[in-house]
């Protein structure tokens, strides 16, 4: 069931590659505002309403949470590592993994926390 849920969420999650093809729609913020090496979240879709970001060093045992600043409805991973974005606020609940250099201008559900994998 978990594999099916993850697969469903992954198909709903819009991935955006890094580089020129990642230009945000007019009137929206650009995910390039995410500092190099960071994991970023925006409160609104289209990379608006932020960003809030976590900077290295990262530890794969640490749950990244910004109490009072989330949840996030668009995210970007520039950490250099895969990142797991969770629906729950304590790295729990539904999740989707994003490779480095990818993000989503509109997550399928508000993201409450994240964890950098394979550090």
TrEMBL record:
Indicate the secretion signal residues. Answer: 1-23
Keywords from UniProt, A to Z, are: Signal
- Supply the name of the protein: Peptidase inhibitor family I36
Q: Which organism does this record belong to?
A: Kitasatospora cystarginea
């Amino acid at each position: 069931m978990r594999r099916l849920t993850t697969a469903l969420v992954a198909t709903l999650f819009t991935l955006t590659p890094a580089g020129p093809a990642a230009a945000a729609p007019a009137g929206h913020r650009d995910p390039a505002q995410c500092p190099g090496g960071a994991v970023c979240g925006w409160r609104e879709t289209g990379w608006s309403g932020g960003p809030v970001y976590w900077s290295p060093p990262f530890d794969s045992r640490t749950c990244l949470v910004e109490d009072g600043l989330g949840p996030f409805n668009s995210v970007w991973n520039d950490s250099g590592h895969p990142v797991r974005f969770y629906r729950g606020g304590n790295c729990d609940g539904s999740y989707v993994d994003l490779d480095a250099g990818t993000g989503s201008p509109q997550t399928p559900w508000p993201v409450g926390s994240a964890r950098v994998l394979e550090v």
